[in-house]
Amino acid sequence: MKKILFVCTGNYYRSRFAECYFWFLSDMFGIKLEADSRGFEISLADGLAKKLGEIHPMTKHEIRSFKYLDSEKENWGSRETYTSKIIKNRKQIALSDFESFDIVIALNKKEHEKYIIDMSIDESVKKKIIMWDIDDVIFDLAPTKCFNSIKIKCEELFMKLYNEEIINGTI
Known about the structure:
Elements: E1 3-8, H1 14-29, E2 34-39, H2 42-52, H3 60-74, H4 82-86, H5 95-100, E3 103-106, H6 109-118, H7 123-126, E4 129-131, H8 144-168
Parallel strand pairs: 1-2, 1-3, 3-4
Helix pairs in contact: 1-3, 1-8
């Protein structure tokens, strides 16, 4: 089973939505993949959440997005919700995470390349890192563009992994 880690700056929205959407795809296609999420600098997200008065560990955009996925999952007769699965505190990435996961997705190359350089990640481990170009949603009142970009990139990655599973005969 492949383990995928999605990382954004604060583990505030993008990485957690990508994690949740990847579970959605995994469930929809019946492929066992593990997804998780982290942030490079969660103190920034914690500060922003405090400033915005958000006491819940999820943003209002995430809750709305996850409830949509929950309603889709109910159509298959499933009772476990993504919202209940994803409610958790933001997590700071650790050097060991790069070793623990098969694929690490940094959601924005321009934002996150500096963190990867600063972490002094071994060259062999850097091969696991994929850089996307998903802009932050923090100042977007309707994060549709971000939401859709994450969905498209997750679907592309999922189909690549799905096809590898078919080729390897593990499906």
